[in-house]
Design a protein that fits this description.
Elements lengths: L1 H19 L1 H16 L1 H20 L1
Helix pairs in contact: 1-2
């Protein structure tokens, strides 16, 4: 299971690099760091960000 996931993620990274170059590489690294390593903290900060965005648009 893990090997398949690893292969798929490498394939996605390769596709991103082909499409977006170094920007895609940077985004994929950020995505990996935020989503996988800091999953719960990311959800909390994303919720706070969404609430802030909603409150600022209502004013």
């Amino acid at each position: 299971m893990k090997k398949m996931k690893h292969i798929n993620s490498n394939h996605l990274d390769f596709m991103k690099k082909r499409c977006f170059g170094s920007l895609g590489e940077l985004l994929s690294e950020l995505w990996y760091a935020i989503i996988i390593n800091n999953r719960s903290r990311c959800q909390v900060s994303a919720t706070k960000y969404q609430l802030n965005a909603i409150s600022t648009t209502r004013k």
